[in-house]
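re: ur question from the group chat, yeah i did fold both. here u go
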Amino acid sequence: MRSLAGSSTAEVLPENVLAKGDRMIAWWTPTCRRQMFYENSERRGRELNGRRFPQPALVWRVDNRDLKIRALTENKRPAATTTLAVAPFWNLSDDGRVCTGTMRRPDSARAASIPEWERGFYESAFTHANVGHLTRHPAGFEGLWSDLAGKRTPFPVKTLIQLPQKLAEFVRGDGG
């Protein structure tokens, strides 16, 4: 009977949580500024390493220790029908899955682990592009982040690539 009921315990969810299942949690973060680290064989990110950058609003999803991230074009809590955008980061695949490499990951998908997931993502080194086109910025990925390095301006949402994927699909694990 216990195995059918699951092993989750009740928890109070913060208002940034969008959905919660037994082994899955999805949340959003508003725009902010974060330090990012770059380390790659082409050394294209060397001048960006350790700098602070404006970030777009993001949607995060953890399911069975896999992390996926999408961007939002508006800095507000998304609804089920909100259309998502490509998160313009290295180490992400087409479906938003983070190549975790040596990233420190929590063992759970509890609300209390959200800060650890975010810290693990931003404190890991962005090492490689998994997707060909991450941004609409005319100078591409390096141009976008070079323009934003050290700036206090908002993230330019016009550079985000809109997807057909809705938040509800992302939360369910549908679509890419």
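okk and heres the other one u asked abt
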Amino acid sequence: MTQKKYQRVLLKISGEVLAGEKGYGIEPHVMDFIAGEIKDILDLGIEAAVVIGGGNIFRGIAATTSGFERTSADYMGMVATVLNALALQNFLEQKGIMTRVQSAIEMKALAESYIRRKAIRHLEKKRVVIFAAGTGNPYFSTDTAAALRAMEIDAQVILKGTKVDGVFEKDPMIDPHAKKFDRLTFFEVIEKGLKVMDATAVTLCMDNNLPIIVFNLKEKGNIKRILQGEKIGTLVS
């Protein structure tokens, strides 16, 4: 039996992925698909945490261009991530997976407050922990929350699920001939201005030697293949 490369991983899901083809809101069949992909992680005997975005419902930084004050807009975006987290919890539990939502903003009736030691204990008991409400602070993205939580729970890797097959030199949705990178250093990501995660998140990962694998979440079985050692997507380390 081969030894597992990872004991604990953090999956970062962008809100936009949850909207499916509609481009907004929550698409139930997409949630069900993602829940199945997360179940694959547990079936491999690996502990899983999730950080979820809210862009399918409300994007704080984008709303500022429409007249919203930045701090208020960011808090609205954080609340949107809680809606997504509760939806994902529902679909995971339908598959028999024990799940806990921990929110960085206190919402006693909906979720546990984020407590690091409690989160780790849930993971050790093979529960999926969904971290909602970002870091609980305006001006910090859910990418930064993913980097921060991954380090706090001692995850060995961040799996960044996107709509494309990895990191490209240009947007592959616009330029189908854009070159895909199989591997990058953190410095290259920052130097080239590549949209892997925001600069704060990338710097946090670089300073703490936490690798990121960017991959296509919409491709069935990708997570399982990555965790079994296949080279899929783009590795940033």
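fwiw on the second one: The chain has a mean pLDDT of 92. The CA atoms of residues 4 and 230 lie 13 Å apart. idk if thats what u expected
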